[in-house]
Design brief:
four-stranded antiparallel beta sheet, mainly beta, seven-stranded mixed beta sheet, about 120 residues
Length: about 120
């Protein structure tokens, strides 16, 4: 069993920055693709970013150039640095550990484990 615990959410003004952290416990996550999704009220959970152990990363178009995903060397902690935040970034952000061979990191169905979520609110 894997447990993912997010932290770092909060309230920030538009244009500000926030860094989210996700700590994994249990089965090591170092060989797994890790990522972040977010879900705003009335919307479906959407892909934000993903990181492979090789260093490859993927981002949603809406956050590309503003958000950066990174991992500890062991791969058990994943971070999401969020810069130039916009009100539309307001959502609950979820850490995710994918299956070993995810078909597409864009799809929530490829995620095996989820964190509990952390609220990010961006004021205008």
């Amino acid at each position: 069993q894997v447990q993912l615990v997010e932290s770092g959410g909060g309230l920030v003004q538009a244009g500000g920055s926030l860094r989210l952290s996700c700590a994994a416990s249990g089965r090591t996550a170092r060989n797994y693709v890790m990522g972040w999704f977010r879900q705003a009220p009335g919307k479906e959970r959407e892909f934000v970013a993903a990181s492979w152990s090789s260093g490859t990363t993927s981002y949603a178009d809406s956050v590309k150039g503003r958000f950066t995903i990174s991992r500890s060397n062991a791969g058990s902690t994943v971070y999401l640095q969020m810069n130039s935040l916009k009100p539309e970034d307001t959502a609950v952000y979820y850490c995710a550990q994918y299956s070993l061979r995810p078909t597409s990191v864009l799809l929530a169905s490829t995620v095996d484990y989820w964190g509990q979520g952390t609220q990010v609110t961006v004021s205008s």
